[in-house]
Amino acid sequence: KNQVEQSPQSLIILEGKNCTLQCNYTVSPFSNLRWYKQDTGRGPVSLTIMTFSENTKSNGRYTATLDADTKQSSLHITASQLSDSASYICVVSDRGSTLGRLYFGRGTQLTVWP
Amino acid sequence: EADIYQTPRYLVIGTGKKITLECSQTMGHDKMYWYQQDPGMELHLIHYSYGVNSTEKGDLSSESTVSRIRTEHFPLTLESARPSHTSQYLCASSDPSRGANTGELFFGEGSRLTVL
Q1: What residues have CB less than 8 Å from B77, skipping those under 6 apart?
Q2: Contact: A43, B90; criterion CB under 8 Å
Q3: Listed residue (A100, A67, A70, A76) closest to B103, CA to CA
Q4: Is the model's pLDDT at B100 over the cut of 50?
C-alpha cells in the first residue's frame, strides 16, 4: 500500500532555532516529492519539489533533501521565524498514471515561540 | 501568486440544506480538484476534472457532486447536508504544461463547512 508518513506529528521550537521535519514514503513507482506549507485557515503552498535525481534543494531558509534509495525526505528550516508556524505537508507523486496520483502525508504542525 | 478563489470561506447550515461551494481560477488551468481535509488528517481527493465537461470521482467517496461548464469554474454541491459533511473543503488547480507528474497544485484558501 502506498503511504506517506511524516514525523514528528507536532513540534515546538524557539524563534531563531533550526529544525528538521521527516517524510518517509512507500510510493512506487516514484515521480517526485513536494513539500507544502499550510498556514492556519489557508490553503497549502508549495515550497519545493524533489525529483528522483535530486538530493538537495534550497528555497531561502528551507532546505529539502531526498534519499530515493531509502525513500526518505527531510525539510530543514534554518533560523526559524514566527511566520514559520504552520503545517508542513509532504506529497509524493507516482508515475503510475498520466494524472500522476498524489499521496499526502498528515503533516507536521510546527509552532515557533518568541 | 496563485489566483484561485473559494467562496464562502465559512458556512454554518442546518441538516438537510442544499449548499454549493464555489471555486474559480484565473490561471487558465485545465485540471481542477476538490479535496476534503479534517484536522490532523491527510487531504483526500473527492473530485477532479481534466477540463470542460470532464468530472471524475476521487479516492474518497463523497455524496457531493461537481460540474465543469467553464474552464475557470468548478463548483461543488451537496444536495442535502448532514453533520458528517462537516469539514474543510479545498479547491486546487494545476498547470498541465508542466506535465501531470510534476505540476504544482495551487490551492484556494478553503471553505470550512459546519452542518448542525
Answers
A1: B18, B19, B20, B21, B64, B65, B66, B67
A2: yes
A3: A100
A4: no
